[in-house]
Design goal:
Layout (H helix, E strand, L loop, with lengths): L17 H11 L14 E5 L2 E4 L4 E4 L2 H4 L8 H13 L11 H13 L6 E6 L2 H16 L3 E5 L8 H6 L17 E4 L4 H4 L5 H15 L5 E6 L15 H11 L3 E5 L23 E4 L10 E6 H4 L15 H16 L2 H22 L3 E7 L2 E6 L9 H13 L2 E2 L1 E3 L5 E4 L7 H18 L1
Parallel strand pairs: 3-13, 5-6, 5-7, 7-8, 8-9
Antiparallel strand pairs: 1-2, 2-3, 4-10, 9-10, 11-12, 12-15, 14-15
Helix pairs in contact: 3-11, 4-11, 8-9, 12-14, 13-14
Bound molecules: ligand PLZ.
Length: 443
């Protein structure tokens, strides 16, 4: 068992404290400035719903390291499993001498992902790497080149995934040329589409663009986040995803769900596609799969997955044994502790708090999300004009009071809430008390 961190917010120094300031100075002299950080605070320990910094401050974690530590940082089953594995062997390379953990993770993915068709999986290390492999596999299966991604999409920072990602700053500017044969279709964004455009209408709009500008005959895959993450926690209108899925099926196009951020209990279902009964051909997972260790996967229909020739998929570290041990323990934790249900409880608590805040603050134009993936979109009162300055001010005020909160969105105007599912109600209420004050003091 690991020592449990006290589950309360505690400010021992100003944020950042002197030790963090000293580490920030060392960092500035040696780490490339292109790598950013939300807060100038260095972590010492984390667990439950708390991150303790090097100055002894305990911060409430509403970020989970960007939706990774869904079971909590250092969840005890993960720690025990990794300890056991690290003592046995750290690496052999699955492509040289395989090991059981990799196979067991593939079996778990087979069991947990939507659909009861025959499936296969391949494991990788990062989300972007898995998205790239899903595209490789879809191209091998269809013999077609083109890939469609959506407005506001985020799929990673590698060359192909930069092309799939929509937002120029900070992800793409100056980093091109980008991979060819990537096309962009309009998303369903209910807050900005308005009530006139339902899910079916938004799907028709997207499909029209795809048919006219790409053509199904050349299209290998449609890649979509069932709820967009970095793009602003955008939940498409009901019917949008199923209509796209059906169009893909009718046209021999591989439907790829990027559940890197939404997967593994985060949205109050094991996978976000389940909320609309959508069964993707390929599902990409990462982040929450392994309790903080780097692991990602592509899982899907056996005939599609096996279109890639033997030796065509892999990588030195893909399905690293420590990461596989962590994944099995994280999955066991999700199931043993009923974390899918816990995500739904968190949804109720946080939505109540956000709805209350919205009544008091006209800058909150929209409150949305599912499970423990919730957001408030800030706008100039009375309209839809994005208000990124308010989002930044509220976040900075919360940071200073010991609450880790992230922003996102194409316009940078969305406050997003991604607590670990191991965070207790008292902690969440304290965090939202701090946020309420942050809203009041920045009005
Ligand atoms: N697909 C849906 O959310 C990663 C990125 C943070 P990697 N999101 C956090 C940043 O600024 O780099 C993400 C995602 C979705 C793919 C990815 C990429 O996953 O593990 O970061 O490569």
């Amino acid at each position: 068992m690991t020592e449990q961190l006290t589950q309360s917010r505690h400010l021992a120094t100003a944020i950042p404290g002197p030790r963090s300031v000293a580490l920030m100075n060392r960092r500035a002299a040696t780490v490339a400035r292109g790598v950013g950080s939300t807060m100038p605070v260095f972590a010492a320990r984390a667990g439950g719903g708390v991150v303790e910094d090097v100055d002894g401050n305990r911060l409430i974690d509403l970020g989970s390291g960007i939706a990774v530590t869904t079971v909590g940082a250092s969840a005890f089953r993960v720690v025990d499993a990794v300890r056991e594995q690290v003592a046995a062997f750290t690496h052999t390379c699955f492509m040289i001498t395989p090991y059981e953990g990799y196979v067991a993770v593939a079996e778990a993915l087979d069991r947990l992902t939507p659909g009861d068709h025959a499936k296969r999986s391949a494991l990788f290390s990062s989300g972007a790497e898995a998205v790239e492999n899903a595209v490789k596999i879809a191209r091998a299966f269809t013999g077609r080149d083109a890939v469609v991604a959506f407005d506001h999409a985020y799929h990673g920072r590698t060359n192909l995934t930069m092309a799939l990602t929509a937002k120029s700053m900070p992800y793409k500017r100056g980093f091109g040329p980008f991979a060819p044969e990537v096309y962009r279709a309009p998303l369903s964004y209910p807050f900005r589409d308005g009530p006139g455009l339902d899910g079916a209408g938004a799907a028709r709009r997207a499909i029209d663009v795809i048919e006219k500008q790409v053509g199904a005959a050349d299209l290998a895959a449609v890649v979509i986040e069932p709820i967009q993450g970095e793009g602003g926690f955008i939940v498409p209108a009901p019917g949008f995803l199923p209509a796209l899925r059906d169009w893909c099926a009718e046209n021999g196009v591989v439907f790829v769900a990027d559940e890197v951020q939404t997967g593994f209990a985060r949205t109050g279902a094991m996978f976000a596609c389940e909320h609309e009964g959508v069964v993707p051909d390929l599902i990409v997972t990462a982040k929450g799969i392994a309790g903080g260790l780097p692991l990602s996967a592509v899982t899907g229909r056996a005939e599609i997955m096996d279109a890639a020739h033997p030796g065509g998929l892999g990588g030195t570290y893909g399905g690293n044994p420590l990461a596989c041990a962590a994944a099995l323990a994280a999955i066991e934790t999700i199931e043993a502790e009923g974390l899918v249900g816990r995500a739904r409880e968190i949804e109720r608590l946080v939505l109540n708090r956000l709805t209350e805040l919205r009544r008091l603050d006209p800058r909150i134009g929209d409150v949305r999300g599912r499970g423990a993936m919730l957001a408030a979109e800030l706008v100039k009162p009375g309209g839809e004009r994005p208000d990124p300055a308010s989002a930044a001010a509220v976040a900075a005020t919360a940071h200073a009071q010991g609450v880790i909160v992230l922003t996102c969105g194409t316009y940078g105007n969305v406050l997003r809430f991604l607590p670990p599912l191991s965070a207790g109600d008292d902690l969440l209420h304290d965090a939202f008390d701090v946020l309420a004050e942050a809203f009041a003091s920045t009005r």
